[in-house]
Fold this protein.
Amino acid sequence: MVVTGICLLDLHGKDVNYIENDGFTIDAKIPMFDSNAPDSGAEMVRSMARVLRDVTFELEKSKPDLVLSGFDIGGNFAVTVAAAHMNIPVAHIQGGEVTGSIDESIRHAMSKFSHIHFPATEDARNRLVRLGENPKDIYVVGCPSIDVLVNTPSINPKELEEEFGLDFAKPFVLVIQHPVTTEAMSSIDQIRETMKALQTIEAQVVFLLPNNDAGHSKIIEEIKSSGFTWIPSLPTLKFVNLYRNAWALVGNSSSGIHETPTLKIPAVNIGNRQMGRERAANVIDVPNDASQIQLAIKSAF
């Protein structure tokens, strides 16, 4: 196991600690991001280049029979490209999905560098076939994060209410809003529209900080100065149990598309980040407009 990306950053909660606490053996840590670097698309490329270079040494050392890579994340993209060039078979989780941003390009590129495919749906499988992948190497397995949701043990809601200062009997909104890389310059305006909407509704609000795609720094600054409760990240046990008690998920995270149907809560999906994804009837799509976001959240309650 190689850990990289925001899992190593204090700003984003240093999730490497949660990985270790869960009992996994970490064989290597590859610093991907420079904390003093600019918040830009160019720095995203340089960060992937760092992993692409350094992971080759780990692959040479471990000589794996298979590289398991997933989704549309920069670090995963780097190891997928490296392994393919080193003639190591790559298995890719959740390829074939449409997401409406640079993430989609990364995801499809990873599929083309991979040899075994584990898509979540038949629609994704069919897209992989149209991309030229061998149907014999494609296995529809569903979304792995749903297994995590279903199998995570329950925490007494009273414990969570005390820890986070919440009352689950009253409306409670969990907010996860990431930058859209292709709209990085608009990130600050987009998060401000979301906050305007949240300030006009009677609900408890908890933000989880976004990833660090281009445009993230302004979002984090706005969240930290907003007066809303915010958390850099959470261990799986607490995150899932907090999620289970939310009245709605608001933002543009893929979690709103993939996981809220299982939790049976509404998802207010804002903007273009998840454009084109398959979605269930619980997803309410709205533009980056405060008045429409407000109406969507109220309808979710």
